[in-house]
Write the C-alpha coordinates for this entry.
Amino acid sequence: MRTICVIPARLNSSRFPGKLLEKAQGKTVLERTLERALRCPFIDYTYVATDSEPIAEHIQAMGANVVWTSPTCRNGTERIAEAVKTSPEIGQADIIVNLQGDHPCTNPQTLGAVVQALQLDPEALVSTAVTHLTDRTDFLSPHVVKCVFDQNFNALYFSRAPIPHCAGDVKAYAHIGLYAYRRAFFDLPPLSPTPLQLSEDLEQLQILERGYRIKVAVVEEMPLGVDTPQDLVKLEQYLCQLNTSS
Protein backbone atom coordinates (compact mmCIF):
# COMPACT_ATOMS: atom_id res chain seq x y z
CA MET A 1 0.00 0.00 0.00
CA ARG A 2 1.26 3.47 -0.88
CA THR A 3 1.48 5.67 2.20
CA ILE A 4 2.09 9.42 2.11
CA CYS A 5 2.63 11.67 5.11
CA VAL A 6 1.31 15.22 4.82
CA ILE A 7 2.51 17.78 7.37
CA PRO A 8 0.09 20.74 7.52
CA ALA A 9 2.12 23.88 8.19
CA ARG A 10 0.87 27.44 8.63
CA LEU A 11 3.18 30.26 9.58
CA ASN A 12 1.07 32.26 11.99
CA SER A 13 -0.22 30.61 15.15
CA SER A 14 -2.36 32.61 17.55
CA ARG A 15 -0.33 31.61 20.61
CA PHE A 16 3.14 31.47 19.03
CA PRO A 17 3.42 33.14 15.60
CA GLY A 18 6.20 31.75 13.41
CA LYS A 19 6.88 28.84 15.75
CA LEU A 20 7.52 26.33 12.95
CA LEU A 21 10.56 28.32 11.81
CA GLU A 22 11.95 28.81 15.30
CA LYS A 23 15.16 26.87 15.92
CA ALA A 24 16.06 24.37 18.63
CA GLN A 25 19.61 23.05 18.70
CA GLY A 26 20.28 24.44 15.22
CA LYS A 27 17.21 23.08 13.41
CA THR A 28 13.73 24.51 12.99
CA VAL A 29 10.71 22.89 14.62
CA LEU A 30 9.32 22.04 11.18
CA GLU A 31 12.64 20.58 10.00
CA ARG A 32 12.74 18.25 12.99
CA THR A 33 9.14 17.17 12.37
CA LEU A 34 9.92 16.47 8.73
CA GLU A 35 12.98 14.42 9.65
CA ARG A 36 10.86 12.20 11.90
CA ALA A 37 8.47 11.41 9.06
CA LEU A 38 11.34 10.70 6.66
CA ARG A 39 12.73 8.12 9.11
CA CYS A 40 9.53 6.07 9.21
CA PRO A 41 9.85 2.93 7.04
CA PHE A 42 6.06 2.71 6.67
CA ILE A 43 5.89 6.07 4.86
CA ASP A 44 6.79 6.20 1.16
CA TYR A 45 6.67 9.97 0.54
CA THR A 46 6.34 13.08 2.69
CA TYR A 47 4.89 16.48 1.79
CA VAL A 48 4.53 19.75 3.67
CA ALA A 49 1.17 21.43 2.94
CA THR A 50 1.29 25.18 3.38
CA ASP A 51 0.09 28.58 2.18
CA SER A 52 3.26 30.31 3.41
CA GLU A 53 6.08 31.43 1.14
CA PRO A 54 8.72 31.41 3.96
CA ILE A 55 7.76 27.86 4.94
CA ALA A 56 7.77 26.69 1.33
CA GLU A 57 11.21 28.21 0.73
CA HIS A 58 12.53 26.60 3.91
CA ILE A 59 11.25 23.15 2.95
CA GLN A 60 12.41 23.40 -0.66
CA ALA A 61 15.89 24.42 0.53
CA MET A 62 16.03 21.05 2.28
CA GLY A 63 15.05 19.29 -0.93
CA ALA A 64 11.67 18.22 0.44
CA ASN A 65 8.23 18.25 -1.19
CA VAL A 66 5.79 21.15 -0.85
CA VAL A 67 2.11 21.22 -1.81
CA TRP A 68 0.36 24.60 -1.88
CA THR A 69 -2.97 24.95 -0.09
CA SER A 70 -5.41 27.78 0.53
CA PRO A 71 -5.03 30.25 3.43
CA THR A 72 -8.73 29.70 4.13
CA CYS A 73 -8.14 26.17 5.49
CA ARG A 74 -9.35 26.18 9.10
CA ASN A 75 -7.34 23.20 10.34
CA GLY A 76 -4.88 20.51 9.32
CA THR A 77 -7.58 18.10 8.15
CA GLU A 78 -8.99 20.67 5.72
CA ARG A 79 -5.49 21.43 4.46
CA ILE A 80 -4.86 17.74 3.78
CA ALA A 81 -8.27 17.31 2.13
CA GLU A 82 -7.38 20.11 -0.26
CA ALA A 83 -3.97 18.59 -0.95
CA VAL A 84 -5.62 15.26 -1.79
CA LYS A 85 -7.76 16.97 -4.41
CA THR A 86 -5.10 19.23 -5.93
CA SER A 87 -2.02 16.96 -5.87
CA PRO A 88 -2.18 13.89 -8.15
CA GLU A 89 0.60 12.21 -6.14
CA ILE A 90 -1.18 12.60 -2.79
CA GLY A 91 -4.55 11.78 -4.33
CA GLN A 92 -3.25 8.38 -5.48
CA ALA A 93 -2.10 7.33 -2.00
CA ASP A 94 -3.81 4.45 -0.20
CA ILE A 95 -3.12 5.85 3.28
CA ILE A 96 -2.43 9.48 4.23
CA VAL A 97 -0.81 10.32 7.56
CA ASN A 98 -1.55 13.68 9.19
CA LEU A 99 1.49 14.73 11.25
CA GLN A 100 1.23 18.14 12.88
CA GLY A 101 4.13 20.42 11.99
CA ASP A 102 4.64 21.44 15.61
CA HIS A 103 5.30 17.88 16.85
CA PRO A 104 9.06 17.63 16.27
CA CYS A 105 9.65 14.67 18.60
CA THR A 106 7.16 12.14 17.24
CA ASN A 107 8.79 8.71 17.16
CA PRO A 108 8.87 7.10 13.68
CA GLN A 109 7.58 3.94 15.39
CA THR A 110 4.48 5.86 16.46
CA LEU A 111 3.89 6.94 12.87
CA GLY A 112 4.27 3.33 11.78
CA ALA A 113 1.80 2.16 14.42
CA VAL A 114 -1.07 4.31 13.10
CA VAL A 115 -0.33 3.16 9.55
CA GLN A 116 -0.36 -0.49 10.60
CA ALA A 117 -3.65 0.00 12.46
CA LEU A 118 -5.31 0.84 9.13
CA GLN A 119 -3.46 -1.85 7.21
CA LEU A 120 -4.75 -4.51 9.60
CA ASP A 121 -8.39 -3.39 9.35
CA PRO A 122 -9.44 -2.82 5.72
CA GLU A 123 -12.89 -1.59 6.80
CA ALA A 124 -11.60 1.27 8.97
CA LEU A 125 -11.20 4.74 7.47
CA VAL A 126 -9.22 6.47 10.24
CA SER A 127 -6.64 5.57 12.88
CA THR A 128 -4.96 7.47 15.68
CA ALA A 129 -2.62 6.90 18.64
CA VAL A 130 -2.95 6.87 22.42
CA THR A 131 -0.52 6.36 25.26
CA HIS A 132 -0.82 5.16 28.85
CA LEU A 133 -1.82 7.85 31.35
CA THR A 134 -1.07 7.36 35.05
CA ASP A 135 -0.60 10.91 36.38
CA ARG A 136 -3.76 12.10 38.13
CA THR A 137 -3.07 15.78 37.40
CA ASP A 138 -2.97 15.06 33.67
CA PHE A 139 -5.97 12.76 34.03
CA LEU A 140 -8.04 15.59 35.52
CA SER A 141 -6.75 18.27 33.15
CA PRO A 142 -9.11 19.37 30.35
CA HIS A 143 -6.00 20.12 28.27
CA VAL A 144 -5.15 16.39 28.11
CA VAL A 145 -7.64 14.57 25.91
CA LYS A 146 -8.57 11.09 27.09
CA CYS A 147 -9.67 8.18 24.91
CA VAL A 148 -11.57 4.98 25.68
CA PHE A 149 -11.74 2.12 23.19
CA ASP A 150 -13.18 -1.38 22.87
CA GLN A 151 -11.39 -4.74 22.93
CA ASN A 152 -10.85 -4.54 19.16
CA PHE A 153 -9.11 -1.16 19.50
CA ASN A 154 -11.99 0.86 18.07
CA ALA A 155 -12.37 4.26 19.72
CA LEU A 156 -15.54 4.59 21.78
CA TYR A 157 -15.13 8.22 22.86
CA PHE A 158 -12.69 11.09 23.28
CA SER A 159 -13.13 13.60 26.09
CA ARG A 160 -11.49 16.39 28.01
CA ALA A 161 -13.20 14.95 31.08
CA PRO A 162 -11.46 12.25 33.18
CA ILE A 163 -12.61 8.99 31.55
CA PRO A 164 -12.94 6.22 32.51
CA HIS A 165 -13.69 6.78 36.19
CA CYS A 166 -10.66 5.79 38.31
CA ALA A 167 -11.32 5.66 42.05
CA GLY A 168 -7.79 4.50 42.85
CA ASP A 169 -4.73 4.42 40.61
CA VAL A 170 -5.21 6.09 37.24
CA LYS A 171 -5.47 3.59 34.40
CA ALA A 172 -6.38 5.62 31.35
CA TYR A 173 -5.12 6.63 27.91
CA ALA A 174 -4.15 10.06 26.63
CA HIS A 175 -4.87 10.84 23.01
CA ILE A 176 -2.02 11.85 20.68
CA GLY A 177 -3.08 14.23 17.91
CA LEU A 178 -1.80 12.04 15.09
CA TYR A 179 -4.04 10.50 12.42
CA ALA A 180 -3.89 8.24 9.41
CA TYR A 181 -6.69 8.26 6.85
CA ARG A 182 -7.65 5.83 4.15
CA ARG A 183 -7.91 7.67 0.84
CA ALA A 184 -11.67 6.98 0.69
CA PHE A 185 -12.18 9.15 3.79
CA PHE A 186 -11.68 12.26 1.67
CA ASP A 187 -14.42 11.18 -0.75
CA LEU A 188 -17.03 11.41 2.01
CA PRO A 189 -19.32 14.45 2.13
CA PRO A 190 -17.78 17.27 4.21
CA LEU A 191 -18.37 16.67 7.91
CA SER A 192 -20.45 19.44 9.44
CA PRO A 193 -20.18 20.30 13.16
CA THR A 194 -21.82 17.78 15.50
CA PRO A 195 -23.18 18.23 19.06
CA LEU A 196 -20.48 16.30 20.93
CA GLN A 197 -17.72 17.81 18.81
CA LEU A 198 -18.94 21.30 19.69
CA SER A 199 -19.38 20.41 23.37
CA GLU A 200 -15.90 18.90 23.77
CA ASP A 201 -14.19 21.06 21.11
CA LEU A 202 -12.67 17.89 19.62
CA GLU A 203 -12.68 17.55 15.85
CA GLN A 204 -12.38 13.73 15.84
CA LEU A 205 -15.79 13.36 17.48
CA GLN A 206 -17.36 14.38 14.16
CA ILE A 207 -16.16 11.05 12.77
CA LEU A 208 -17.56 8.94 15.61
CA GLU A 209 -20.87 10.82 15.66
CA ARG A 210 -21.32 10.07 11.95
CA GLY A 211 -20.93 6.37 12.66
CA TYR A 212 -17.42 5.82 11.27
CA ARG A 213 -14.80 3.87 13.20
CA ILE A 214 -11.45 5.17 14.41
CA LYS A 215 -8.81 2.50 15.06
CA VAL A 216 -6.52 3.07 18.05
CA ALA A 217 -2.82 2.23 18.23
CA VAL A 218 -1.35 2.11 21.74
CA VAL A 219 2.19 3.54 21.83
CA GLU A 220 4.73 4.25 24.55
CA GLU A 221 5.27 7.99 24.14
CA MET A 222 3.58 11.36 24.44
CA PRO A 223 5.31 13.52 21.80
CA LEU A 224 6.29 17.02 22.86
CA GLY A 225 4.31 19.67 20.98
CA VAL A 226 5.41 23.28 20.52
CA ASP A 227 2.45 25.55 21.19
CA THR A 228 4.10 28.34 23.21
CA PRO A 229 7.57 29.90 23.63
CA GLN A 230 7.85 27.91 26.87
CA ASP A 231 7.40 24.69 24.88
CA LEU A 232 10.35 25.70 22.71
CA VAL A 233 12.46 25.93 25.86
CA LYS A 234 11.27 22.44 26.84
CA LEU A 235 12.26 21.19 23.39
CA GLU A 236 15.76 22.64 23.83
CA GLN A 237 16.06 20.93 27.21
CA TYR A 238 14.82 17.62 25.79
CA LEU A 239 17.33 17.73 22.92
CA CYS A 240 20.14 18.64 25.32
CA GLN A 241 19.27 15.58 27.42
CA LEU A 242 19.33 13.39 24.32
CA ASN A 243 22.75 14.73 23.34
CA THR A 244 24.07 14.17 26.85
CA SER A 245 22.82 10.58 27.06
CA SER A 246 23.95 9.58 23.55
In short: The first strand starts at residue 3 and ends at 9. The mean pLDDT is 94. Residues 4 and 89 are 9 Å apart (CA to CA).
